[in-house]
Hints:
The complex is a heterotrimer of chains A (417), B (244) and C (478). By secondary structure, chain B is of the alpha/beta class. Chain B is built from 7 helices and 12 strands.
Amino acid sequence: xxxxKISSDEIDKIGNFTKEEKNFRLKNLExxxxxxxxxxxxxxxxxxxxxxxxxxxxxxxxxxxxxSKKQKVDFIKxxxxxxxxxxxxxxxxxxxxxEEKDKITLKSFINDNYSNRKENNPLINLNHALxxxxxxxxxxxNYKFKKILVIYYLFTNDLDxxxxxxxxxxxxxxxSELHLLxxxxxxxxxxxxxxxHEDIVLENSAxxxxxxxxxxxxxxxxxxxxxxxxxxESNYTSFIFPAGLKFNKLDxxxxxxxxRSECNLQSASFINNNxxxxxxxxxxxxxxxxxxxxxxxxxxxxxxxxxxxxxxxVKDVAQKTDAYQLSKxxxxxxxxxxxxxxxLEIYADDVKxxxxxxxxxxxxxxxxxxxxxxxxQQESTKLLIDAFLNEVADSIKSNSIRxxxxxxxxxxxxxxx
Amino acid sequence: MLEIKxxxxxxxxxxxxxxxxxxIKPGELHAIMGPNGSGKSTxxxxxxxxxxxxxxxxxxxxxxSLDEISIDxxxxxxxxxxxxxxxxxxxxxxxxFLRTSLNKVRKAQGKKELDALSFLKIMKEKSxxxxxxxxxxxxxxxxxxxxxxxxxxxxLQMKILDPNLVILDETDSGLDIDALKIVADGxxxxxNKEKSFLVITHYQRLLNFIKPDFVHVLADGKIVxxxxxxxxxxxxKTGYKGIN
Amino acid sequence: MKNxxxxxxxxxKYGFTTDIENIKAPKGLSEKTIKFISEIKKEPKWMLDxxxxxxxxxxxxxxxxxxxxxxxxxxxxxxxxxxxxxxxxDKPKSLDEVDPKLIETYNKLGIPxxxxxxxxxxxxxxxxxxxxxxxxxxxxxxxxxxIFCPISEAIQKHPDLVKKYLGSVIPISDHYFATLNSAVFTxxxxxxxxxNTRCPMELxxxxxxxxxxxxxxxxxxxxxxxxxxxxxxxGCTAPMRDENQLHAANVELIALDDAEIKYSxxxxxxxxxxxxxxxxxxxxxxxxxxxxxxxxxxxxxxETGSAIxxxxxxCILQGDNSIGEFYSIAITxxxxxxxxxxxxxxxxxxxxxxxxxKGISAGKADNTYRGLVDIGRNASNSRNYTQCDSLLxxxxxxxxxxxxxxxxxxxxTVEHEATTSKINEDQLFYCNQRGLNQEEAVSLIVNGFxxxxxxxxxxxFAVEAQKLVGxxxxxxxx
Lengths: 417, 244, 478
């Protein structure tokens, strides 16, 4: 059994901090040590007892991980793009060859927000206490990226029972636009824990399109907490394509702060083996006339487990809110499991809020129809899974990027089913 | 082509077909008429190999028993069922699906698979014959299609797959007169010496356009009367109650 | 054009008090109180032991705190756990011996108990504070072998049945309020339907809280033996008081092979006044076990009263092919709070469940649907369908939906849908244009919104419930 208590010496090993920052880190470490990794008693972790999962699978968790070796990057050749390379959470090289350089700021991240809040999620406190890597990206006012920016997140093969605490921040200033592909490539065959804190701000009329794609399955345990602030008329679209990890929880919070802001979340995943895939969202409608749309699709095979916990919160002033949430899961094997908790908390009356959640097998009539046209049971099933997941990828506008994503998804499905 | 002897079928312990006999030779077109609940759709389902039925009796296609032959193998052997209610399958592109289906059937019959280009040619040709908008074929399979479009899509698939035995399950239901004519033309132009048809319908109307060689009346799971197309006319006058 | 009808704001019409002399248990919760209750009910020792076991468990358990409605801490030592009219001490042998004041109370509530006037087709067990006052149609039911009597009588006369089933669905240790009830429950109904018997009439219990500073802790146990059917309904009211009164009931249903139980509730406890003063805390544990194959339990509830309603009538679908249903209307107005829903636990094969929940929130009220659908590993070919709709009137109230959905079986299907919206203005306008005033229009539209649930109620109560839906929302639309 692993002892989760972390000594305050670990903070000193990270570096020398101002008194204020040191206190902030110490306080958060104390919060984490009080609770440890979250367990089932925490409502947000009801379907996934991380404490049990970590104790079962890890013998130790090394906090300090020295400088990462330089890594050869296998760049995507399917389309032209700018790039940033992050190795084990650390910002290394970047290339903005298609853009005006003075419109972009990119640097290693330095936290300057020392709010002393006790988080309901102990992993956030842990990140506050120990984060030592990350990047800050800013797109200045009135600038639209000409090409997509790919952020390569590489994990090296020398990771072994480490925990990485990284912290990233993206700020898109007024009237600016960024298209992003977050591309995760994992070379480690061993287990490790990746704990990310992400902070995204969209100023008035800013647009962000984000695609998160895992290159392949891995033995990582990933947790990301992402807080997204959307100001007036800003628009955030996020596509998430996880390929399967030992544990993957994305805890996403969207605050629609300004009127007519809009957020759109789409996810599709096929997982198998004993993988765990979880998305938790909280969409806060704080202003009138905002729109939020979520569509989360999971296909589960073998002993995998999928979880969706989505909450829509509508404040009393947020009239004319249009909020929608849909989660659909297909269970293919006897030992897989899908749990969901689609939640609405609404205090304004002139709103359109709804959610749907379904889980079950593929439609038998569809399989029958396809078989009368000569396809075998296996082929029919595969075609239907493909169709089910592709619906999400199909709403990506750029042809080259959509095809790239679809090919990746197709490969994952080929390997897994 | 098709030989059915003493066919019994039940679902959830409810007997639906009770000793049905029918024999169809190559080139013949048989119509089966019957009131609601007489077992018409069950017959179509059983012939296609749909699961969930308990079956006894003899079912022979081209001289071979159909027992133990799965739905897709039957399709590959040339049995085609045009559905009464074609299933909507979101996310599946109609023309891609048609090509997959055709190549499955061709492969099973030892023919070469078609590449995208030559398939497109065939599809264009056949859909033009049916007066179908090509745009429809780039949409999702049957999703958002009107009743008439769905039925035309079934006939298009029939033409493309070029089967030996065609079963039309109430293909006329829900069609206006123009769509009915197009569907009937589609069937008539496919008739030849080798192909057999089994047309299942509630109304005589369709038989004004598709002339059957034989007409059978199905009631309570059995063929109660057989004849030629005059029988259909008679039925129109007397109704199903007048038979027997 | 505002409505011309000024006489719409009816007071809570069951708010009167019956002035009657009571016998009470000593104030507060203690072993002494429990022994007092057990003694006055002339209970056998095993029953007292059972209560004390629950009391010991209570000492180490904590009140739950996860629910949405928060309430001030209840002082369990300031309550009376038993209160009964003095005249009921020596059990009246027939209705003629019952204190006329009690009969009059029930007459005023619209539940006549005497032979000539009693409701046709409905057998009633009338519970007043902590005792059952009278049970109608007893003889006719006895002829069929049906037992319908106060549970305190069942403990004495049918100990084997009570011992076998009491606490078998809601164990003593279930949660704080269920444990509390197990220790101090006073009266309630007991129903046993023998094999292959269809109960010829509706069985009904009418609960009335009268005394002040008194909690009501009723316990109901219904057993439907193989192949039997029963429809049971309960109604409840209480006087208007400034204090909050606690009502913590336990209801257990058991359906054996091929049996069906239909349980309907029209809950109209005093909701408190416009400013949220007073009203009943309605903390109820209701659970049914479909133990036998092909069994069915159907819950229907119309929840319009109480300051706080907190209940989840649930079904444990153990038997293969068993069916669970939950139909609910919860209306909250002014400062009322409701946190209600159901749990459908699918254990057997081919089990089916259906949940239809309609929440309506007005004034400054909060209305939460909370539910669990759990498809176990072995529950093959099971199905659940859930539809939760919420209606909001004004932007000072809240509507919340908190479903938990777990599916561990790939051959089973779970479907959940929920919507939240406000009352449709086009519909209101249409009704107004046809001459209905605002209140009437709202009542009509809301009744339409609730129709699927109202249809489930037995005829005798459906009309009453429809009126109640209208009355509960009065003053909510300006």
